[in-house]
Amino acid sequence: MEKFVIEGGKKLSGEIRVSGSKNATLPVLAATLLTDSVCEIRNVPKLRDTMTMCKLLRSLGKTVEISPTKIKISGSANNHVADYKLVSTMRGSFCVLGPLLAKLGKAKVSMPGGCIIGVRPVDLHMKGISALGVKSGFEGGYVLAQASRLKGAQMYLGGTFGSSVLATANVMMAAALAHGETVIESAACEPEIEELGDFLSAMGAKIDGHGTPRIVINGVRKLNGVNYKMGSDRIEAGTFLLMAAATKGDIVVKDANYNHMLALIDKLNSIGVEVNKVGSHDLRIKSRKKLRPANIVTHPHPGFPTDLQAQYMALMAITPGVSLITDRVFPDRFMHIAELNRMGAQIRRDSGSAIVEGVKQLFGAPVMASDLRASAALVIAGLAAKGKTEIHRIYHLDRGYENLDEKLLQIGAKVSREKE
Length: 420
Ligand code: UD1
Hints:
Strand 22, helix 12 (372-384) and strand 23 form a beta-alpha-beta unit. Helix content is 31%, strand content 27%. It is an alpha/beta fold and 420 residues long. The longest helix has 13 residues, at 234-246. Uridine-diphosphate-N-acetylglucosamine is lined by residues 23, 26, 91-92, 118, 120-125, 159-161, 164-167, 188, 192, 306-307, 329-330.
């Protein structure tokens, strides 16, 4: 196992580049199961999660060749069983369910199970595929699903906590090869869904409205191969902005999509951080010495993303004054509070919210990463803190941030990756 050692208190400056989007890449890789032709995908971030998806595709019959610039996927899906060992390590793997049903007419996919950030049910996935005529059940920790030919249908996919990104993705991919028209009402509007829609369109799918709450898909008989470049990761870009804000830095974030990050940028502007577009692909962020605290409530896109809640909390922890942070998407996603408090933060949890009393300074300490975004929050805290922070279990970070230590070195951070 490895750890990050961060010597805090360095002001970040210079340029940092955003990688391809992890959460967009996972369903796009799954969508390649829908065709027997060759797909070439560029700008795929080299992460544990994307490599897990490649392993899963291989286990389902595809040939996957990984080179430094692209991933080439060929061959045909010939196995309908997505094994527990691969699906349990990453919830994103559950989005092979829709493509397997569409291509093979049956699927046996391990339940992703509980997770450190909350219960994470799959009822919306099941509701969506059942509307398409799939018969399904649960057995031995697996979802078993079957249908001779999927039939398009109108469905409402909203849930207690709003729309679901991966349930929307599963239904879109299944409906792409279904007979007739599918209308998904209350679909997820996240940029990752928009990108999946673009990818499916490039494969020859008839799809409209992706990126809005109403997606209309007219099934086709066959999809073709594509050559596609993934867009950039809005959560990684947002994490960089929050790192700069927390260290009173001045950086340019290259390959960031401004339009995907409006909720965060609006919040940063309101607390005293300047974020400006540089050309069409880059963002410059300049933080003032004194910031104001501000509350956030996470919501599905275009609201403030739950995947930046922990990192924003790290910034509020060192912003004097009180802020209230409420997670409406994953109300239990607060594992980072205890670790931030070990560094001197003053944060209390009150059901689905955290009350943050900003302090002047955090102090380096040994801390434990509990999940992907919580680990990023600890990196932000470590960069801003006085003294040395050791972050253990950084395999969580490696699931979602490509070469983070190397990228941070380029903007003046003092960080090293060491063996435990
Ligand atoms: C995706 C992202 C994850 C992000 C989340 C919310 C990927 C690989 N992961 O996860 O990083 O935090 O979106 O933006 O893209 N829910 C149900 N029933 C369901 C499915 C979900 O009630 O069948 C609930 C969840 O518990 C949660 C909310 O809906 O409260 C949103 O979850 P969802 O959008 O499904 O998250 P994922 O797609 O799993």
